[in-house]
Amino acid sequence: MARSGRAGVLERALEAGFNGEVDALPELFTGDVSGWSPNMLVSSLEELVEAVAERDESLSNVSLQIDVLDVVGNKGYVEYRVNAVFSGPFTVDDETVIEPNGRELLLGGVIVAEFDGDKVSAFRNYFDNA
Q1: Strand 119-127's sheet: what is its strand order?
Q2: pLDDT tens across 42-91, in order?
Q3: What is the pTM of this model?
Q4: Running DSSP on this structure, what letter comes out for residue 95?
């Protein structure tokens, strides 16, 4: 069952980000959105679109599971899990590439988001990227 209001926007924003759906981002984020995670830092919608478009292709069969989602006032909180298969090379830098092993990975994380109206204006994504 899809959520409504800000909770629905936050759920859809996670799905769009994890699935690389850049066309959906302007409906969900403000033009001056700011956000960070262990592997991303953005200060505008344009930078967020670029970051999502350039996401790593090392994972396949990506599946998002939202465990907890709550919105209180203008802040939203999400606990999530992502299952994926490590199926393509992961480039750390120009000199370091980790070859895929075909194993299934599980990543858990938390996102804290702030809203301006019905769009996400800021987010912080916490997870262990080791």
Answers
A1: 40-42, 29-37, 119-127, 104-116, 75-86, 59-72
A2: 999 999 999 998 876 788 888 999 999 999 999 999 999 999 898 888 87
A3: 0.86
A4: T
